[in-house]
């Protein structure tokens, strides 16, 4: 998986960028406020004026210039004024120079802030020679301290804020990731303990990321497993229930054959036992087929099939059984092929079950009709008989496994044939329904989607 396409990656990247930006701006702000505080509090302007006057009186202008350079290195632009003229060079803005003569003549000390982050001090001082002088000093908030000290303060502030914000962001991101992971972990443990109804659901902080997809996939897997296990349990219960009667009959038949004195009578019992064994074998095979269908068939081979041709082949296979009961099989279909896309093996089994079921419940000398047609993008196949039909209250249960209606006593069976047909229809995206015919009999209608036009064209080529 490409990490750049991961929503978790982008979420981490965005939040760490936000943390770094907060550290940058907040760190600079706090450092500036700290230096402003130290500038305003720590500078002793009166002491600074006295130092400047002593340096000037002892060494003159060159000594004052050297001392001013040292102060400038520590963040203060400073000089002495005498008779309105600076005794050493100082850089002043035009606005300050315009107001400076009035401040020098004010006759008292002045400390003001011409603009944010800049302090101006004018200190009146009288030298030992009796000459009046004035100290003019400028201190900028970011130059009050030595550059090395200033860099250390900034580094400490940045490092502290980085640890704080990265720790907070890391905690939040870890919490948002750990919560759904922990939910998945608990759900997995509960599933392993046998709680198949366990679901992760939607957890906070996992709206659309990979963890949300993982939780959704887990829930889908859990739902599928629960359905399969429930189905297997139901199949096992149904099978155990349905096998009980034929096994009891088989046990009784074998007991009678064992205790029979007449060999001919014993042979009859053994033939009856063989019939029961064959019945059990058919029931087991149908149950396994239904179980595979309801459990899904991975890798099912599908192709374009002509439903008319498939129906014709199934009728030919059922001809012997129909002739044994003198039942006429009829096929009504359009001239053009009706193409569906599906598994030939499954659809053939479904049609065989429908035809066999219709023959089984038809009266001797009756008729079974197959009608194939297409309409509204669907292919339809109707199997109609003239048997007893099904009570209206039982029609909805007709496709349920092992269901045998009140008319089932008229024919052998296990109640699985139509259940298999319905499952085949669902696998192919179709549906199965049954209605009673006017005048008696049952009409079972199987509808399937027609194959796409491009697929049919490719098949014809």
From TrEMBL:
Domain named Histidine kinase: residues: 238-452
Ranges that cross the membrane: 12-30, 153-174
Tree of life domain: Bacteria
Keyword Kinase: yes
GO MF term set: phosphorelay sensor kinase activity
UniProt entry keywords in alphabetical sequence: Kinase, Membrane, Phosphoprotein, Transferase, Transmembrane, Transmembrane helix, Two-component regulatory system
Topology relative to the membrane: Multi-pass membrane protein
PROSITE patterns in the cross-refs: HAMP, HIS_KIN
Coiled-coil positions: none
Principal location class: membrane
Pfam families: HAMP, HATPase_c, HisKA
Compartment annotation: Membrane
EC number of this enzyme: 2.7.13.3
UniProt-listed InterPro entries: HAMP_dom (IPR003660), HATPase_C_sf (IPR036890), HATPase_dom (IPR003594), His_kinase_dom (IPR005467), HisK_dim/P_dom (IPR003661), HisK_dim/P_sf (IPR036097), Sig_transdc_His_kin-like_C (IPR004358), TCS_sensor_his_kinase (IPR050428)
Catalytic activity: ATP + protein L-histidine = ADP + protein N-phospho-L-histidine
GO cellular component: plasma membrane
SMART domains: HAMP, HATPase_c, HisKA
Identification of the protein by name: histidine kinase
């Amino acid at each position: 998986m490409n990490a750049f396409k991961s929503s978790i990656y982008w979420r981490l990247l965005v939040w760490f960028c936000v943390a770094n930006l907060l550290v940058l701006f907040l760190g600079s702000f706090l450092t500036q406020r700290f230096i402003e505080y130290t500038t305003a509090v720590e500078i002793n302007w009166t002491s600074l004026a006295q130092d400047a006057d002593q340096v000037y009186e002892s060494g003159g202008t060159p000594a004052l210039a050297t001392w001013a350079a040292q102060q400038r290195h520590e963040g203060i632009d400073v000089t002495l004024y005498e008779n309105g003229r600076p005794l050493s060079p100082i850089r002043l803005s035009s606005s300050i120079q315009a107001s400076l003569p009035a401040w020098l003549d004010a006759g008292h000390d002045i400390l003001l802030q011409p603009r944010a982050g800049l302090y101006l001090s004018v200190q009146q001082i009288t030298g030992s020679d009796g000459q009046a002088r004035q100290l003019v000093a400028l201190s900028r908030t970011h130059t009050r301290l030595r550059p090395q000290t200033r860099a250390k303060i900034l580094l400490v502030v940045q490092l502290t804020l980085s640890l704080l914000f990265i720790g907070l962001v890391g905690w939040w991101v870890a919490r948002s990731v750990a919560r759904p992971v922990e939910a998945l972990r608990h759900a997995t443990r509960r599933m392993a303990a046998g709680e198949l109804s366990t679901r992760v659901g939607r957890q906070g902080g996992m709206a659309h990321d990979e963890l949300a997809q993982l939780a959704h996939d887990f829930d889908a897997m859990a739902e599928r497993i629960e359905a399969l296990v429930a189905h297997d349990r139901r199949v096992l219960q149904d099978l155990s229930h349905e096998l009980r009667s034929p096994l009891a009959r088989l046990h009784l038949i074998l007991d009678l054959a064992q205790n029979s004195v007449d060999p001919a009578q014993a042979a009859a019992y053994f033939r009856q036992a063989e019939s029961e064994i064959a019945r059990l074998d058919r029931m087991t095979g149908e149950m396994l087929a239904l179980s595979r269908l309801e459990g899904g068939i991975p890798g099912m081979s599908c192709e374009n099939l002509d439903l008319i041709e498939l129906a014709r082949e199934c009728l030919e296979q059922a001809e012997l059984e129909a002739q044994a009961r003198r039942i006429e099989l009829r096929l009504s279909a359009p001239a053009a092929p009706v193409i569906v896309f599906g598994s030939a093996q499954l659809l053939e089994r479904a049609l065989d079950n429908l035809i066999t079921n219709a023959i089984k419940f038809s009266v001797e000398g009756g008729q079974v009709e197959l009608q194939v047609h297409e309409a509204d993008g669907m292919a339809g196949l109707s199997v109609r008989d003239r048997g007893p039909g099904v009570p209206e209250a039982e029609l909805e249960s007709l496709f349920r496994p092992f269901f045998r209606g009140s008319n089932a006593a008229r024919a052998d069976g296990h109640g699985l044939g139509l259940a298999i047909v319905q499952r085949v229809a669902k696998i192919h995206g179709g549906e199965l329904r049954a209605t009673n015919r006017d005048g008696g009999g049952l009409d079972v209608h199987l509808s399937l989607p027609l194959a796409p036009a491009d697929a049919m064209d490719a098949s014809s080529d």
